[in-house]
Amino acid sequence: MKISVAGTGFASFICIKYLVGIGIKPIVFDLDNEISEENKIAIKSESIVKQKNYDKYICLGGLSNIWTGVIEKYSENDFLKWPINKNDLEPYYDDVLKFLNFAEVHSFYSSSNDDFLDYKIKKTNNLSKKEIYKDEKFSVQFASLLTNQLIDSEKNNLHYSNLVPFSINKEINKLIKDSKIDFRREKISKVYENANSVLIETLTKENQKKSFECDYLFVGCGTISTYQIMKNSFKNIEDNLRIKSSKKVVFPVKFLNIKNFEKKFFNTFPIAQIKGLDNKNFSIYSQIYNLNPNIINYIFPKLNNFKKYLFLFGLFKKFGFSYFGLGSDFSDEFTINNNNDVKIFEKKLKSSEIVSLCKNLFNKNFINNQILHLNIPFKMKPLSGNHFGAVFPMTKNKKKFFESDTFGRIGDLKKISINDSSIFSSLSSCPPTLTILANSLRITKEVVKNNFFGAPGRS
């Protein structure tokens, strides 16, 4: 039996891990590029969508080696447009952390009730986070991080400077080295189905065309690559098929009553998370960072003069930023043609609209006088976020070819499942990574349970 997986990012990785765990050796396709320093700078300074040669970002493990590691589940209200609910996905959220037993979850916390900036880090066994503040509109909690496992010396001297965001790359390489997967340095360009199998066309880095046949295909190579595969494969997909992109807006914040600044503010991870509680009307989520390393790296991605870096660091030491993601109601949309040209359909928003939705944040008593949001929103340009999805939305009753069932199968496909955020019915403002993992695991388990592979005698 030949089971194939497209990509090695989060959606594909959890699928691969499950298949290997039940004794299946999947065929895995990925171009296996390295992320150069130049590409890292490009990602920092501009949306990845706008990079003309997108293929150079198809990397082993996806782009997970630059993921900041914030862990967050979707809320119940985020599933209002989905054919499944949070209770359906909850056990898979839990299973994801079991599958990632070579990673660790760490959370910030504070031992002081009146100084949340007195933060430290500790290893946790779950995603429970201390609530710092809550009113009728917003809840503020400390952030959790998914990190690489620490060595014993680091565990004995735990500090956030020791933490490295979890990367899939090492785990995929181990699967290759141990011959657990049949790895092919190719990207899938087209797919077809006949009665008993899936036909796949691939391209190597040298643009050499190859073909392959298998019993089932899981596509988890990321929204943009999945979009391109399906557009290449099916002429009846409508021309106005669009990718949703989360919109970002940043509010500067001023930290009040900072103590021991120099010991705290070299942390590059988000400290806390703000969740909008009225998600039926709008979806807003924010990560609160100290400003210094993050904003300097963003505005000056090529800065390597340490003296200048320290000068900027000190200049803004009392300031940070609140980095907001907006959900589907505010999403921009875009298409990519065969020449990799991007056409944007922008959701026009006035800064005053966002300020109005977030007015509680500008109350001087927010977080008990410890942080002050400044009413100066910026960076709300189209495609300012790198969270994509909802191209082939899951629905209860499919009415259009590009809608998918709960197994990620569009049109009349029976042996091809899309596992990534392409099939999300809507985008939350929350980071999608944990939900991508959980939903991909759900699909993979259900496909195996229902024996959608068929033709078990093939070899």
Task: List descriptors.
disordered C terminus, alpha+beta, 459 residues, single chain, five-stranded parallel β-sheet
Task: Provide an overview of this structure.
This protein has 459 residues and is of the alpha+beta class. Helix content is 23%, strand content 24%. The protein is built from eleven helices and 22 strands. The protein has helices at 10-21, 37-45, 86-99, 152-156, 169-177, 223-233, 261-264, 292-299, 306-315, 351-357, 433-449; strands at 3-6, 27-29, 103-110, 119-124, 131-134, 138-142, 144-148, 182-184, 187-193, 198-203, 209-214, 216-219, 243-245, 247-255, 272-276, 284-290, 319-326, 332-336, 342-345, 371-373, 388-389, 416-418. The strands form five sheets. It has a seven-stranded antiparallel sheet. Strands 8-2-1-12-22 form a five-stranded parallel sheet, covered by helices on one side. It has a four-stranded antiparallel sheet with strand order 19-18-13-21, covered by helices on one side. Helix 3 (86-99) crosses helix 11 (433-449). It is globular, with a radius of gyration of 22 Å. The model is unreliable at 455-459 (pLDDT under 50).
